[in-house]
Each structure stands twice: as structure tokens, then as C-alpha cells.
Amino acid sequence: MAQPFVKKDDDLDEEEEYSPFHGIEKGAVLQEARVFHDPQLDARRCSQVITKLLYLLNQGETFTKVEATEVFFAVTKLFQSKDTVLRRMVYLMIKELSPSADEVIIVTSSLMKDMNSKIDMYRANAIRVLCRIIDGTLLTQIERYLKQAIVDKNPVVASGALVSGVHLLQTNPEIVKRWSNEVQEAVQSRAALVQFHALALLHQIRQNDRLAVSKLVTSLTKGSVRSPLAQCLLIRYTNQVIRESSSNTQAGERPFFDYLESCLRHKAEMVVFEAARAITEFNGVTSRELTPAITVLQLFLSSSKPVLRSIATLAITTLLKTGNESSVDRLMKQITNFMSDIADEFKIVVVEAIRSLCLKFPLKYRSLMNFLSNILREEGGFDYKKAIVDSIVILIRDIPDAKEIGLFHLCEFIEDCEFTYLSTQILHFLGNEGPKTSDPSKYIRYIYNRVILENATVRACAVSTLAKFGAMVDSLKPRIFVLLRRCLFDGDDEVRDRATLYLNTLGSDASVGGTDEDVKDFLFGPLDVPLANLETSLQNYEASDVPFDIYSVPREVKSQPLAEKKAPGKKTAGLGAPPSGPTSVVDAYEKLLSSIPEFSSFGKLFKSSSPVELTEAETEYSVNAVKHIFDGHVVFQYNCTNTIPEQLLEMVNVFVDGSEAEDFSEVVSKPLRTLPYDSPGQTFVAFEKPEGVPATGKFSNLLKFVVKEVDPATGEAEEDGVEDEYQLEDLEIVSADYMLKVGVSNFKNAWESMDPDNERIDEYGLGVKESLAETVTAVIDILGMQPCEGTEVVPSNSKSHTCLLSGIFVGNVKVLVRVSFGIDGSKQVAMRLAVRSEDPEISEKIHEIVAEG
């Protein structure tokens, strides 16, 4: 069996932990598996070998078909052992190997024998394994045994059968639904875990029948559920029934609310918390309904148990985000008392809630900002402090009245800040915002203290911040000069260089920029070359008599790193954080395209696609394409990389054949002059199309270039080259390319605010489909719109579903779509499509896109 992690050497200064599986190889373990064939089985050794095999499988190690089959047949021989521990390992191994239909027959008889064994542990595990590996045909043969197991007196066996039913419901729902009577009997079990699993299975069986779910909740809320886990499930199902019935009941009426309120007095803390959370999540929750939930959460906050305080923190912060001003002060007092007792991860949740609250109630900024500044001075890790600083920065940007008090709190923080990153970012922000305040001079002391007391990185940043004050505030310029001259004697060359540069820039004998506008642009303007390209050029520069020329740095943006900036989660951009993915990508592409004269007349860039690979991985030349959509033009950006060190490519161009795209006509082709090894470059081809029309088509691509051999010793390329070409994959323009994914926070309000006269509705028969989920995904992909409110997720076994979509169509036309799907027993899918937009013609076009798709 696997041993727990232990210390390798207690005498080491650094306590290194190691795994007993460290360094094991598949081949060696497969050799060890031969012990399964020994006439006299060593149960302990066999268990250890199975543990190693399971470890390899769970680490992602792949077994070939032959290897898996050999291991499977070897493991089946271990059924002859009577060792209980080994038998449990055998069950686990068979389940993990997932044998094929032909192999399942080999172990079926052994597992069925164990399923009727007198040893309860064998019975429970055999049921679990059988249900994971058999198909529907065999399931009907053992259905009788499974139904008996569900009502078995032994809770381990009953629980195993119920959990197996949950898994089988996904593949054989018709068979599992026949077990309703037995499952309902199991719900009345005295065993806590059996009752929990039985309730979960019973709800899944009835989940598509709202009336049946409502009846289930009605019968169980009368007090027959004893298990705390089952009680938590029942609270969730009750909450679901309340939400679904809220639209059909009169204002102020909530069915089952008395039950939820009674759960607040339950002896199990998990039940109390679940009930409190359910109440706080009600839409339009009243003060009367909220009071008992807040009371129990406040008791949790004062509890001596850290876990309860942390859990209550999450609930209280939810209330902070959704509450009103009158309840905030009371909650803030509670939070202040326990902030020092909870972990940083929960503190971050509180900080984010305070930020949301302040943006919701701007007039409360002073007290909330003071709260943030107080906790900023307390002990905490980097992530926690960064969350606080980010929150203060966002409040300063969004609430003008909070600027001066917020900057003052940040200045006080950097006086005793241990994190270099935060100090530099605050100084940068202070340099941008401080000069615009009513009294900029009061910040100079805090900035210059950093020059005296901090490390070189912070000192250099402080020098730049001082220069910004000197550039923006003329009255401070003489004092700034004095401070910058003192920095000329600093021990760090970066600090001295910056001081020298800014003295020359701001001084009367300026050598860098002449006018005030030039100076401000130099200090505050963005760098006009990509940082990655500048870094590469500096690394490749060799010191010589020729100085480094910044104009030699390529201005082209590498598309792949840009694509990687897209963040998977949605976070508020705080201090030092770039804007969320798509915005930064579009901005960078727009800047790149606007710098090319041939494209300057195309107007504003509407959308840029993700890179589309046009070559296979690890080929001689790597090419991907980005589709840039304008109102009347489409520009293909081909990102090319030469992966052969001994070659230099020149006059790189992509010849595009648009014979299958009749609505497009080529207007501009911009070749790439040179393409050295492993240095990405771009070539462009632009097409004109009818303005505002979602024209589609397929384009074939042929890469043409001149190849020059490179001498590995000198790095020099030969003068003569050879023309060559390379066939690329086709590139398509589809309807979704003309739609920008933009979500809305409240779809119902957005829908009702659209002019109903612009609504177009039609119904479509989509034929036979595997599932509703597949159909919903396909429609979303065709339209290229943003799903709202989580409606892209289709509940399992659902027979109907409504999906809400939002987007902006080319020409900056807002579009909202409500799609309703239904599927019958023969898997025929019908769809009702309702479209509202700012332009009725666009609503028609959306229907045309769906009809053609």
C-alpha cells in the first residue's frame, strides 16, 4: 500500500518531502506486475504493485491497448485471493482500467458472485465496479440485485447501490427511473449517508418534472429528513422550487419560507449556514426575511471556531454586495471585529465586497475608504495587500471625491511597505494622479522618502515620479530640480541615469523634446514599440562603435503572445493589471493596423479574431492568420515564423485565391521584406466587401518567398536566393466573424428596453440531434454571440431549454437573441428564435444567418 509522505532526512535544515512513487517508470512497474501470475500470491506485494499502477494512471500515464489488456487479465487472477485489502484494490484497478466490452465478460461472473457475497464490503464494492463497466444489456440482468441492494439493511451496500444509480442515470435513465419506489424507501433510512444519496438520486430522477419536485419538497419538509447532509440538499431543492414559483405567486408570498426559517434553528451548523445562504440569495428579499439569517450569521462571526467565521464571512460579504446602506454599518462593525482572525483568502473576499459596495453607494466612500486604509496597515500577505491597493485605486478612478483621501492612504502605506512591486506601482499611479490634485506639493515628501530609504528599484521609480510632478506643476519645478540633482550621487546607475535624463528633459537646455507638450508626451505617453520586441533587440545588440538605435526595433506586434493575454476569469482591472483580454488585443491590433498607411482609410477596426493555425505543428514554416473585420473591408494578417536556422526568407508574401468568396475583391497586399530564423513577422492581404453586409467565403492561401542559405559560422546569408512556395490551409470568413461578443448584466431589462417593433420571430425544425446541449452550442457558434446568465449550460436529460444571447453586429448595432429549444422522444429538435436589435434589418439578417447555417 502507498505510504504517507515522510521526511527524507530529519537532520536536513530544509525539510524536504518526497513521494514513495518518485522516479518509478511504467516499464518497471509492468515487469513487477508479473507477481500477479505467481502460484503462491503475496497479497501485500500485489497491493503495492496495484498502488503503483493506479498512481501511473492518475498521473496521466497512458497504457497501450496491449499493456492495458495484459494488466487487466493479470489482475483478474487475483480474485482467487481471500485477502480483503487486496480484493478492494482489485475492484479499484478494474474500475480505473475501464475494460472493453469483450473483456468485461471475463470479470462479470466474479463481480456478480461478490455482489451476492456474505461479506458486505465485497457486495458494496462489486456493485460500484459493475455499474461503471457494464452496458445496458447486462444492466437489465442485474437490475433485480441492484433494487434489493438499495433497500439493504447495511448502509454501505445501500449507499453503494444509490451512488451507482446516480452514475447510471446518465447512460441508462429509463432503467434507473424504474427504481423510484426503492429509492423513495431509502430516503426514509435512518443511515445519514444512505438518506443523502437516496435524496440526491430521487431528485435527479424527477428533476425534469417541476410538479414532481415540488411534491417531493412538500413531503420531505414536514420533518422526515434526519441526515444533515440530506437536509442541506433539501434546502437547495426548496430554494429552487421557491425561485421557480416566485413568478407565479403574489408579491410577498414565498412557499416553504417557514421551513427555511426553521432550519436556522437546526443543531447542525452546516444546515444553519445553508438555510441562511438560501435566504440571502432570494430575489427582492425583505428586511423581515433577512433579519433571522443575519442574526445567525452574526453568531457565526463571534464563534470560537475559525471555520465558522470564515464561512460566515462569505455570507456576510454576499450581503454587503446586495444590501442597502442601512444594513451596511451594522455588518461593517461585525467584520471589523473578526478581520484579524480569518485567513487572507477570506479577507480578499471581504475587500472585494467593500469595493463593490463603495461603487454602489459612492456617498459612503469616506467610511469605507477608512476601513480599507486601516486593514492595509495590518499584517497580511502580498495578494491580500494587492487586493486592498487595487480596490483603493479603482475607487479613486471611479469616485472623483475619493481621489485625495485615497492618494493620502496610499502615501502612508508606502512609508512602511515591504513589497517592492506594490511600492513601484503606487509611485507610478501617484505620478499620474498626484499632479492633478488641489495641492500636489504635499505628496513630494512621501516620494522623496522613497529615494532615501528604499532599494534601487523603488528609488528609480521614485525619481520618475518626481519628474512627472516637475513636468505637470510649474511651481514645483525648482524644488524638483534640487531633489533630482541630489539623486545624481546615488549608488545605483539606474537611479543616476534617470535623474540625469529627467534633468535634461525638464531643464531649459532640454535635449530630449523641446516644448512642454513634448516633455509630457515623453513622460506620460506610451512606449511606441512593443516591450517584447525591445527586449529581444537589446539582447541581440552587441556593443560597438555604432550606438543602439531604437528605430531599428520592429513595430509589428507578435500575435501569439497577445492571444495568450486573454484571461479565463473576469476580474476587475486594478493597479498594474492590464485590461481584460479581448480589449487589449483589439487595441494592440488597431494600433498596428492604423500605423500601416494602406489601411488607414478603412476606418475603425470592429473585431479581430483569435489566431487560426494554417500549418501543422513542427513544420518548416509556422503560419497562423488573424481576421480583422472593418465595416467595408477584411484584412488577413498572416503571422509567419521561420523554424529553420540555416535559412533566411525574403520577400515573404501570401497569395490568396478568393474564387470561392465572390463578394470580396483584393485591394492591398503587403509583403514581409525579411524573415530571419525564429523571429516572427507579419504579411497582410486586404479585401474590400459590401459595407455592413456579413459576406462569407473560403480563401485558399499559398506562401511564397525567396530562400537564402545562412552560413552557421558567420551568420551571413548568401546573396543569391531561390524562389519557393508552401501550401497553407484554407481560411474562411463566417457569419460569426461579424459579431462581437458583448454580454449584458440584466438580460430582461436590456430586452425590454429594445424597441419591440424591431423584433423578428421565426421557428425552425433542426432535424435529429444527439442532444439539446450539442444543438445549443452549435447555434451559439453560428451566431458568435455571448451567452448571458449561464444559459449556455443545458441541464442533463432536459427536454426543453431557453438560451439568452447578446452581441454587437458589425456597424456597432446591439443585438439580443432569445432562443427556445425543444426535443422529443425521437430526438427531433425544434427551435424558436426571437431577435431584437437597434435596426430591424439586422434582426432579419440574424434569421438569415441561422437559416443558412
Automatic annotation (TrEMBL):
Name of the featured protein: Coatomer subunit gamma
Alphabetical GO biological process terms: endoplasmic reticulum to Golgi vesicle-mediated transport; intra-Golgi vesicle-mediated transport; intracellular protein transport; protein secretion
Domain Clathrin/coatomer adaptor adaptin-like N-terminal: 27-312
Subcellular location: Cytoplasm; Golgi apparatus membrane; Cytoplasmic vesicle, COPI-coated vesicle membrane
Domain Coatomer gamma subunit appendage Ig-like subdomain, chain residue ranges per copy: 588-733
An MF annotation (GO) of this entry: structural molecule activity
One annotated Gene Ontology cellular component of this protein: Golgi membrane
Sequence segments annotated as region (Disordered): 561-580
One family name in Pfam for this protein: Coatomer_g_Cpla
Lineage of origin: Eukaryota, Viridiplantae, Streptophyta, Embryophyta, Tracheophyta
Membrane topology: Peripheral membrane protein
